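Exercise 7. Given the encoded structure of a 351-residue chain, write a plausible sequence.
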């Protein structure tokens, strides 16, 4: 807010408004596309390899901006409300930060994957150790699910990931990772702290109301930055498919299997809180923030790890669109149950 004038930085003079009108309309339109635009990103990234080569140097910046936008849009009132009932949040946080990487690590060692394919093992461990994607609450909201619960669990698990990732790197990745486990934890902490600080400054400058008012163009900007990240990561997928189609397809199938296994198992574990809320937590747990791990390791990863990270973008970007019918049925069932409960309560109170 500009002191003495009552304007926010979003309230621009008419000349500037005309200059930015077209980009804002374009971002608003893009933001309105929702899960369709998110799904299209994966195909664009693969179909235009030169775009990946052009954008790969900016992958860290893209990850930082995605983190900033997500922290900037945190609903503090809803956050505090859920933190007053911490049992569910604590359980979901423990599952995604401790349960998932522990099971992935033990399974990989039990099956011999750690020895037979160290690059793939590293990819799976980094995926398991990562916090959920910062875009998970927005995707949950687009699908009509409980985005607030997802957001609170995301915040708590993201706060813990520098420490849990360092722990599991020490347990399972000693000598495999290019940086030491303590250095990994410090880099993760630095990236998260810097993005949180930047988001706090933006919130103070522009105000929460202005950010809420411009939700649609901000959604569009988020999609553009997702395209930058996906293109940078997926730029070599087409050439890898041509060079070794069977291996590439096998890795893609593994990526889809891991994604939907995490979704299904998490939904089953938390089904007692209601299928819709359990499904929302499952969606969050399956959407792992591999970009954060790429930034923390500076991309110094084996080729197989890069390939797996690239192919995980397909389930990450396609699943919200593909799962939309299931989410609608779950939310409709929840709404029907709530309406029936309210009707019963009203009848009883009128007697």
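Solution.
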């Amino acid at each position: 807010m500009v002191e003495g004038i009552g304007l926010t930085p979003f309230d621009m003079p008419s000349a500037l408004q005309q200059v930015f009108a077209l980009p804002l309309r374009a971002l608003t339109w893009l933001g309105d596309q929702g899960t369709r635009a998110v799904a299209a990103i994966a195909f664009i990234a693969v179909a235009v390899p030169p775009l990946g080569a052009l954008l790969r140097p900016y992958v860290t910046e893209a990850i930082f901006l995605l983190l900033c936008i997500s922290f900037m849009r945190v609903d503090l009132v809803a956050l505090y409300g859920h933190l007053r009932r911490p049992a569910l949040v604590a359980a979901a946080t423990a599952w995604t930060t401790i349960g998932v990487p522990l099971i992935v690590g033990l399974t990989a060692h039990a099956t011999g994957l750690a020895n037979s394919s160290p690059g793939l093992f590293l990819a799976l461990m980094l995926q398991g150790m990562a916090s959920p994607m910062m875009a998970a609450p927005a995707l949950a909201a687009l699908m009509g699910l409980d985005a607030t619960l997802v957001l609170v669990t995301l915040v708590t698990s993201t706060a813990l990931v520098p420490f849990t990732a360092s722990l599991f790197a020490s347990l399972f990745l000693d000598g495999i990772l290019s940086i030491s486990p303590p250095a990994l934890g410090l880099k993760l902490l630095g990236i998260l702290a810097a993005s949180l600080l930047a988001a706090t400054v933006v919130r103070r400058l522009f105000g929460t109301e202005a950010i809420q008012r411009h939700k649609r163009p901000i959604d569009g900007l988020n999609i553009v930055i997702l395209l930058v990240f996906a293109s940078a990561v997926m730029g070599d997928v087409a050439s890898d498919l041509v060079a070794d189609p069977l291996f590439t397809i096998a890795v893609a199938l593994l990526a889809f299997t891991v994604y939907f296994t995490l979704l299904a198992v998490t939904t089953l574990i938390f089904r007692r809180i209601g299928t819709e809320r359990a499904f929302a937590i499952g969606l969050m747990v399956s959407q792992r923030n591999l970009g954060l791990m790429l930034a923390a390791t500076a991309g110094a990863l084996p080729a197989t790890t890069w390939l797996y990270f690239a192919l995980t973008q397909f389930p990450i970007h396609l699943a919200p669109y593909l799962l939309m019918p299931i989410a609608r049925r779950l939310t409709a069932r929840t709404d029907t149950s709530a309406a029936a409960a309210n009707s019963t309560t009203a009848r009883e109170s009128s007697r």
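Remark. Confidence is low (pLDDT under 50) at residues 1-10, 337-346. Students should compare their own answers with the one above.
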